[in-house]
Amino acid sequence: MHNRHDRLKLSRRALLAGAGSFLAVGALPHLAAWAQDEAPPPNAIPPAEALERLKTGNARYVSDGGKGRDFSAGDATRVDKQYPIAGVLSSSDSPVPPEIIFDQKPGDIFVSRNAGNVVSNYTLASLEFAVSYHGIPLIFVLGHTDCSAVLTALSATVQRKQLPGHLGEIVKAMEPAVIAAHGKHSSDPLNTAVEENVRLGVKRIKKDSKLIGDAVLAGTLKVAGGVFDVKTGVVTLI
């Protein structure tokens, strides 16, 4: 029979062994959710094909308003696994629902939304998650015409106005886009700033995330962007 001292030694040994196993597993690179599947996942497609699907989906939306797509709760619950073809960073504004704009079914798009489709560390983490765990071949930055967040940043920058709370962080993030738009002397400064903000977002995603940048260099991922016209429904690539 083991005495108390022996039992403590065994407990410590078991604890250390368990911790070692945990660390060993944690040290392994995390694979996409489909890594254990025998067949290639449905979203294992070239980035160019993913972008083409978004383009043709938007054409369908412009044609029929996405009336043929089922977004009911029953349809959503039938999505057993996620194989999104794209990660979309879009504005939080209500007229800009990416799944509807691109006429994709539930589970086809991994969406991250905020005011002004701004790239933050949390945004990058979400997109990195989609690349690492869901194997998306495309990241798309989606701006939209007459964006109220971009207008706020434009006005605050021109007037050198300090906004309350965390709103100043959005203005600061979009300030380079506002300045770039101002330098173009456009007759439509707001929507020029919207376009520049999309370009800035695409650049930041590739530059500020090594994980994403490496995937782009490897040719397994593309980062693109466009502007959704809220009046016509058309997404124009930038």
Can you list the strand order of the major beta sheet?
Answer: 2-1-3-4-5
Q: Low-confidence spans: pLDDT under 50, at least 5 residues? A: 7-30
- Average pLDDT taken over every residue: 85
What is the CATH T-level topology?
Beta-carbonic Anhydrase, Chain A
Main beta sheet: 5 strands, mixed
Q: Which CATH-level-2 architecture?
A: 3-Layer(aba) Sandwich
Write the H/E string, N to C.
Answer: HHHEHEHEHHHHEE
Strand segment tally: 5
Shape: globular
CATH-level-4 superfamily name: Carbonic anhydrase
What's this model, at a glance?
Helix content is 52%, strand content 12%.
Can you walk me through this structure?
The chain has 238 residues and is of the alpha/beta class. It has one domain: 3-Layer(aba) Sandwich (Beta-carbonic Anhydrase, Chain A). Helix content is 52%, strand content 12%. The chain contains 9 helices and 5 strands. It has helices at 4-27, 47-64, 73-77, 98-101, 121-134, 148-159, 167-183, 189-208, 210-218; strands at residues 86-91, 109-114, 138-144, 222-228, 235-237. The chain has a 5-stranded mixed sheet, with helices on both faces. Helix 7 (167-183) crosses helix 8 (189-208) and helix 8 crosses helix 9. The model is unreliable at 7-30 (pLDDT under 50).
